[in-house]
Amino acid sequence: MSVPKKKLLDTAWNTTTFLLTKQPEDFVDGHRVKIVIVGSGYTGVAIGIAILFKRLASELVFIDVNEELAKAEAEDISHGAAFLGNPKIIGTKDYSLARDATVCVITIGDRSTNEQDPSTLLEQNLNIFKDVIPKVCKYAPNSILLIVTAPVDILSYAAMKLSGFPPHRVVGLGTFLDSCRFQYFIAQKLGISASSVQASVICENGPTSVPIWSAVTVMGIKLKDINKDIGTKADPESWGELHAKVIDCDNDLISRKGYRCWGMGICAAEVVDAIVRNTCICVTVSTYLKGCRHGLEKDVYMSLPCIVGRNGIETLLRHPYTPEEQELTETSCRTIFETQKSILNSLE
């Protein structure tokens, strides 16, 4: 009885070709959402993690001049990719990998110490932006830029000028986190859930930010209707101290743990979510203003309640501020513009 000869294996055979009837390179590349994060420091990684946990990106790219750091962070996160929706996570210094990105988040040059002089920080980060923003926009000309780097209002304005993008496609994280902190501190004082409190901080992401006490509510009940002096110097309950805590939060966290990133990561991911899924949420982000009742007859970026969706800033909300809030808003706008004047010539 003759023994049948074994069929010789195809010379191109390997485990993949044996296991799969169709090869990976032949897979149809359907709708994919690519998010790019420029900067793989604490803040960039926190934003990346928050985006991945919300399963917003099928591809996440960390771009950093320190390519080994970017690759290491990408690989570290990739080891848990099975529980993040199996995204493709890349670390690189090659800006061409930003091609076709939906959102590009700029975190590079983020503040890491309390000792940095504000004017030095602005000059240093502006120089970084002059190099980074044109590279990102070259490969992702249809993306929306989300600016996280401090000082966020001035650098959002710079990014708009350097990119040539329409203003609605350049969004600064602004006072979004400040508003969340304000909401959290109010909830703590009341002893209730933060999600039950509605509260906003607008204008500069900095010491002249403006808490809108007239709009602080719990389930639609205005706290100002209960305490007419809330947030003022005459307030017997000293609610105004909560805004001071908001302003000092970054310095406090940096002095206690060396950096801060998680709150910022969560807030940035929420803005990315609004863009990717077109949720049209209302949040206080930094947007372009030119001659409006919120401030001077000058073009600046500052935070106001904005509707954020697929096109970036879809529209602004008109809020009836009190005369005191209006005055503080104009002061904050003037502060932003005075700081911004120092960089105008370098952006022409």
Write a compact overview of the structure shown:
Belongs to the LDH/MDH superfamily. The protein is α/β, with parallel strands linked by helices and about 350 residues long. The protein contains ten helices and 14 strands.
If you had to describe this structure to a student in words, what would you say it looks like?
- The mean pLDDT is 91.
- This protein folds into two domains: 32-170, Rossmann fold; 174-343, L-2-Hydroxyisocaproate Dehydrogenase, Chain A, domain 2.
- With 348 residues, it is of the alpha/beta class.
- The longest helix has 25 residues, at 323-347.
- Helix content is 40%, strand content 18%.
- The protein is built from ten helices and 14 strands.
- It is globular.
- The protein starts with 14 loop residues before the first helix and ends with a helix.
- A six-stranded parallel beta sheet has the order 3-2-1-4-5-6, with helices on both faces. It has a three-stranded antiparallel beta sheet with strand order 7-10-11.
With helices defined by DSSP (H or I, 4 residues minimum), what is the helix count?
A: 10
Classified in CATH, the superfamily of the largest domain is Lactate dehydrogenase/glycoside hydrolase, family 4, C-terminal
Order of helices and strands: HEHEHEEHEHEHEEEEEHHHEEEH
CATH classification class of the largest domain: Alpha Beta
- Give the CA-CA distance, first to last residue: 90 Å
Q: Which fold does the CATH topology of the largest domain refer to? A: L-2-Hydroxyisocaproate Dehydrogenase, Chain A, domain 2
Read across the widest sheet, the strand sequence of neighbours is 3-2-1-4-5-6
Instruction: Tell me the radius of gyration.
Output: 24 Å
Helicity level: 40-55%
The major pleated sheet works out as: 6 strands, parallel
- Work out the number of β strands: 14
Structural class: alpha/beta
The mean pLDDT is: 91
* Low-pLDDT sequence parts: none
Number of domains: 2
